[in-house]
Amino acid sequence: MKKDDSRVIYKRSGRSEFLSIRAELEKKIARGHTLAEIYDHHASVFSFGYSQFTRYVARYCQRARRIVTCGSQRASK
Questions:
Q1: Shortest CA distance to 21 belongs to which of 54, 52, 57, 48?
Q2: Most distant pair of Cα atoms in the chain: their distance
Q3: Which of 12, 30, 38, 67 has the fewest CB atoms within 10 Å, i.e. is most exposed?
Q4: What sign does the dihedral 19-17-42-1 (CA atoms) show?
Q5: Which contacts (CB < 8 Å, 24+ apart) does range 32-40 have?
Q6: How many helices (H) and strands (E) in the chain?
Q7: Residue 11 backbone phi and psi in degrees, to 5
Q8: Residues 48, 12: contact at Cβ < 8 Å?
Q9: pLDDT, tens digit, for every residue of 15-44?
Q10: How confident is the model at residue 50 (pLDDT cuts 50, 70, 90)?
Q11: Residue 1 to residue 6: CA distance in whole angstroms
């Protein structure tokens, strides 16, 4: 699989990418950064989209679980 920036993307690599910076993400969420801001800042590192990012946050960021279940923080157009 390849993304537009022509780097090779392996199946199921997204979870390991997310988990490698999970502690940093939890700190940013606790400080009040929106999920959209966090995703946009790290989008070049991730091989998955925003919706998968929010699922990973809900599943693996225990401290942030209450924030995520309140609804999507992505601005509607």
A1: 57
A2: 37
A3: 12
A4: negative
A5: 34/73, 35/68, 35/72, 35/73, 35/74, 36/73, 36/74, 36/75
A6: 5, 0
A7: -60, 140
A8: no
A9: 899 999 999 999 998 888 999 999 999 999
A10: very high
A11: 9
* pTM given for the model: 0.69
Kindly state the tokens that stand for 44: 């070049």
Nearest Cα residue to 65 out of 35, 45, 38, 40:
35
Q: Give 40's contacts (C-beta < 8 A, 6+ positions apart).
A: none
Do residues 42 and 34 make contact, with C-beta atoms less than 8 angstroms apart? no
Q: Which two tokens stand for residue 69?
A: 């279940």
